[in-house]
Design goal:
2 domains, mainly alpha, TetR_SbtR-like_C (chains A, B), 8 helices, Arc Repressor Mutant, subunit A, Tetracycline Repressor, domain 2, homodimer, transcription cis-regulatory region binding (chains A, B), HTH-type_TetR-like_transc_reg (chains A, B), 199 residues, DNA-binding
Chain lengths: 199, 199
DNA sequence: CTTGTTATCGGAGCGTCGCTCCGCAACAAT
DNA sequence: ATTGTTGCGGAGCGACGCTCCGATAACAAG
C-alpha cells in the first residue's frame, strides 16, 4: 500500500492515520483576521465562525487562548527576537541598538489590539503567552541592555525581565487613547534605565 | 421638626422623603472589603451579597462600576492629591518631592488589586474612573513635574497626562509577580523624564 | 386606624462568554 | 459489509454584567 496516494491533494498526514486534520494554518489565518478586527480578546465563537469550524476544533488545536495567540504571532515574535543581535551588530552604538529594538517591540505591541494587555501571567504560572514572550525576548532584551549599559558606563539598575514587562505595560491601551504616546514613554523609560542618577 | 433626631445615628436624608435610603457608606464598606479580598473586578453579585442587599441596590447607587470604585477610593485619591503640594513645600528639592509623590501613588495602586488595570478609558469616554483619576491627579502631577523639570534645567519632555498614565500602567500586575518591581521601574522612568539626554 | 402615595428593595431573567463533553461522520483495516 | 479509530461540531453548563418589575415599607392625609 505504501503512500501511493493519488487522490489526496493536501494530506498533511503527520500523525499515524485518520483524516487530514483541518489545516491549522487556516485556523491561524482566521484567528489573525479576527484579532485585527476585534482584538486578541475576541470571543472564541467568533474565531470559530470566521474559520468555518466548530469551537471544539479551535480548542482541540489550541487548548488555551494563550497558545492560540502565541501561534498567531510566533513569526513576528521570532522576527523581533532575531532583530536584536542584528541591530546590535549594525547600529552605531549599543544604546542606539537598544532603542531601535525597543521601538520595534513597541510598534509590534501597539499595533496588535490588546496584545500588551494579554501579556500578564494572570493564571498562576499557566500562562503560555506570558511565558513565551518572556522566554524568547528576555534574553534578547538582556543582551541589548547589557551592551548599552556597559557602553554608557553605568551600573545595571534593573534586570531585563523587569524592563521587558515594563515596556509591555507601557504599551497597554495605546490604541484607545490618542493622547497617550507609548513610544515616547518607553524611550524616556530607557533613558532612565541608562541614566547615571540612581536616586 | 428640624433635625432633632434622637434614634437615627446617621440618617443621611438628602432627598425629599421616603425611606432613609440604605446607607451608601455600608455599601462602600462592603465593596471595599470585597475589593481587598477579590480585587476591583469582583462580581457585583459578590459585593451585593457582602453588603446583604440585592444587586439592584448596588446598581441604583452606583450605576457603573467605575462610579463605585471611585467612591470606594475617593478618600485615598484625595489624600494622594493633597500630598502633592505638601511634598513640594516640605521636600528638599522638587525632584525629591516628585519622587516621593510618585512612590505614594505607586504604593496606592499596587496595594489595590487590579486597580491599575481598571484605570483605562476602555468604554469610549464614559469611563468615570479614568476621568476622575485624570482630573484629580494630572494637575498635581503636573505641578510636581514642572517644578522638578525646572529645577534640573531640562526642557519638559512629556506632559503630565502621559506621565500619570505611564505610571499607572507600570503598576499593572505588580501584585501577581514577585519578580516585577513596579516601584523601581517607575523611579527609573522618572529618571528618564528628568534626564538631559533626549535621544 | 385606614388608605393612598411614593420611593426603595431584591432578585428573576436575558444576553454573552469561556470551556467541556458527547454523539456523529468519515476513513482505514479486516 | 463490518468494525475500529479519529477528528469534528455544537448543545449545554456555569459565571457574569446589567435591566426591569413586582413586592415592600414608610409616611401623609383622611
Amino acid at each position: 500500500m505504501a503512500d501511493a496516494g493519488s487522490e489526496q491533494p493536501r494530506a498533511t498526514r503527520s500523525t499515524k492515520v485518520g483524516r487530514p486534520r483541518r489545516s491549522e494554518q487556516a485556523l491561524l489565518d482566521a484567528a489573525a483576521a479576527v484579532f485585527v478586527r476585534s482584538g486578541v480578546d475576541a470571543p472564541v465563537r467568533e474565531i470559530a465562525a470566521e474559520a468555518g469550524v466548530g469551537m471544539g476544533t479551535i480548542y482541540r488545536h489550541f487548548p488555551t487562548r494563550p497558545e492560540l495567540v502565541v501561534a498567531v504571532y510566533r513569526h513576528q515574535v521570532e522576527a523581533c527576537a532575531n532583530a536584536g543581535p542584528r541591530l546590535l551588530a549594525e547600529s552605531a552604538t549599543p544604546e542606539a541598538a537598544l532603542r531601535a529594538w525597543v521601538a520595534l517591540f513597541v510598534d509590534f505591541l501597539v499595533t496588535k489590539h490588546g496584545l500588551a494587555g494579554a501579556l500578564h501571567g494572570d493564571s498562576a504560572g499557566s500562562d503560555a503567552l506570558h511565558a513565551y514572550f518572556v522566554d524568547r525576548l528576555v534574553p534578547v532584551c538582556g543582551s541589548l541592555l547589557e551592551a548599552a549599559v556597559e557602553s554608557v558606563g553605568t551600573p545595571p539598575q534593573i534586570d531585563a525581565y523587569n524592563v521587558l514587562k515594563g515596556i509591555g505595560n507601557l504599551c497597554i491601551g495605546a490604541t484607545h487613547d490618542a493622547r497617550y504616546d507609548a513610544e515616547a514613554l518607553v524611550q524616556l523609560f530607557i533613558s532612565g534605565v541608562l541614566a547615571r542618577r540612581v536616586r
